[in-house]
Design a protein that fits this description.
By secondary structure, the chain is mainly β. The chain has one helix at 18-27, and strands at residues 13-15, 30-36, 40-41, 50-53, 56-61, 66-68, 70-73, 76-78, 86-88, 91-93. A four-stranded parallel β-sheet has the order 1-2-5-8. The longest helix has 10 residues, at 18-27.
Length: 94
C-alpha cells in the first residue's frame, strides 16, 4: 500500500527515457518501483501504437505524463500514480 497517496514508496528507480521503459518491458512483464520521468509516453518509431501486454505494474508513477497511443492489454496496476496524467488515444483491455 502507498504510505503517502501522492508519492511512491521508496526505494524506487527513475526511468529518464521512453527507451528505458521499452527495454525493460522487453526483458520483463513485471514493472515495480519505478518513477517514469519523461513528459510523454508514446510509440517509438516505426510503431503506430505502444502495446504493453500482460504486464504487472506495482508502485509505478506516470504522474504528469501524457500517455498517447498506448494500448494496455491484460495489465494490472497496484499502488500506481496517475496524478496529473493526460491520457489520449489510449486503450485499456481486460
Amino acid at each position: 500500500m502507498l504510505t503517502d497517496f501522492f508519492k511512491l514508496n521508496e526505494p524506487y528507480q527513475t526511468f529518464k527515457t521512453e527507451k528505458e521503459l521499452a527495454d525493460h518491458l522487453k526483458r520483463s512483464k513485471d514493472l515495480r518501483n519505478v518513477l517514469y520521468e519523461p513528459p510523454i509516453l508514446q510509440p517509438l518509431p516505426p510503431y503506430a501504437k505502444f502495446k504493453i501486454i500482460d504486464t504487472y505494474f506495482n508502485n509505478v508513477s506516470f504522474s504528469k505524463t501524457k500517455l498517447d497511443k498506448v494500448v494496455f492489454i491484460n495489465c494490472s496496476f497496484e499502488y500506481c500514480l496517475f496524478i496529473g496524467t493526460e491520457i489520449e488515444n489510449c486503450e485499456f483491455h481486460k
